Amino acid sequence: MKSILQVRIEPHQFRKRDIIGGDPALDFVNTVTGRDQSPRDWLDSYPRLLEWAAFVHLLPKRVLRTLAKKAHKEPAAAAIALARAKVLREALFELVTRIISRRAPSKSALALLREHWITGIKAHELRFGDGRVLVGLRDDALDFDLIASTVAYRMVHQVLPLPMDRLRICQGPNCSWVFIDSSKAGRRRWCDMTVCGNAAKSRRFHARSRQRRSAQRP
Ligand SMILES: [Zn+2]
User: Measured in angstroms, how far is the CA atom of residue 124 from the centroid of ligand 1?
Assistant: First the structure.
């Protein structure tokens, strides 16, 4: 689904109800909401991207604090990194929705994911501790692109290995959020039943009562 709709950038305070993807990599895609009707992009600045990353616990607090200080000193470089992160976000939306509709993702989306994923791998190191080899973030991994590369790293390591028939896009109006359906029955259709589920139900109710009214007309 390629959006030709105008995307409005708006400030947003992230709340618990915004986090429904099942993994931060999918929640990152959902920082644009309403892609099907009136798309709004909630990442209005690099500091907002940091707020989001803190909210979903994407990276350790000390890393986010350092990035915040750095962004304050180098706002232009931070803005470029935000723009790069958004290009990745759109590629991930395309990738996810194509998988949902059983189509192959575009080569360019896969190439971009790979590029950020490799950067994400390079931001990690292997340590030995407690009798095992552990994967951890390098102490010097403090690049502005670290958020995007961590999202890509998670997408490849945490999301893509999941059963892809459980990947969903919300059926609610003006939403288009993507998520992993981890319900037992596997019949989750909405990001949140109380938001999009009820909106769809009341739409169906109004459609039915309209039908009834027109049927009753002489
Ligand atoms: Zn929804």
Answer: 34
- The contacts of residue 182 (CB under 8 Å, 6+ apart) are 22, 166
Distance between CA atoms of residues 203 and 194, nearest Å: 14
Q: Residue 143: which H helix or E strand, with range?
A: none
Beta-strand runs (E) in the chain: 8-9, 32-33, 40-41, 124-129, 132-137, 167-169, 178-180
Provide the pLDDT for residue 201: 73
**pTM score, whole prediction:** 0.91
User: Would you say residue 184 has pLDDT above 90?
Assistant: yes
**Taking a C-beta distance cutoff of 8 angstroms, is the pair 117, 156 a contact?**
yes
- Report how far ligand 1's centroid is from the alpha carbon of 177 (Å): 6
Say how many C-beta atoms besides its own lie within 10 A of residue 18's C-beta. 20
CA dist., res. 35 & res. 20, Å (int): 16
Q: From residue 217, give the alpha-carbon distance in Å to each of 173, 210, 212, 213.
A: 30, 11, 9, 6
